[in-house]
Amino acid sequence: MLSEIESIVEEIIATGKLMYVYYKVGNDQRPITSQSEINDAKATLEENEPYGVLVIPDNHSLDLKSSNILQEILMFYDRIRMRVYG
Questions:
Q1: Based on the domain organization, do 46 and 34 belong to the same domain?
Q2: Domain extent for 5
Q3: How far lies 1's CA from each of 44, 59, 83, in Å?
Q4: DSSP assignments along 21-38, one per residue
Q5: Any bridge partners for residue 24, and if so which?
Q6: CA-to-CA separations, 39 to 8, 48, 77, 82, in angstroms, rounded
């Protein structure tokens, strides 16, 4: 069971699921005018390589956020480990 949990944690780290991109289309000064702006931005993001360069319009914003899921997984792993070895 512990090796299975370890492989899940390794996969999460390897696939970069600890970070996510927050992409906002439009802003207060220049709001979006149609749904196609959102669809175009989504298509651009899906086609782009991870960690590549992305040029965006001035009314869009892009943030890289981190997830605290790794800390939760490690706490879960420690609880399981203590139960197995305890």
A1: yes
A2: 1-18+67-86
A3: 40, 48, 11
A4: EEEEE--SSS---SHHHH
A5: 61
A6: 32, 14, 39, 48
The string over 25-53, giving b where at least 16 C-beta atoms fall within 10 Å of a residue's C-beta and e elsewhere, is bbeeeeeeeeeebeeebeeeeeeeeeeee
Q: Which residues pair with 44 in a beta bridge?
A: none
58 pLDDT exceeds 70?
Answer: yes
Judge if 49 and 71 occupy the same domain. Answer: no
Bridge partner residues of 25 (DSSP): 60
The tens digit of pLDDT for each residue in 5-34 reads: 778 777 777 776 676 677 888 888 889 889
Q: CB under 8 Å to 73, separation ≥6 — which residues? A: 5, 8, 9, 12
Per the prediction, the chain carries an average pLDDT of 79
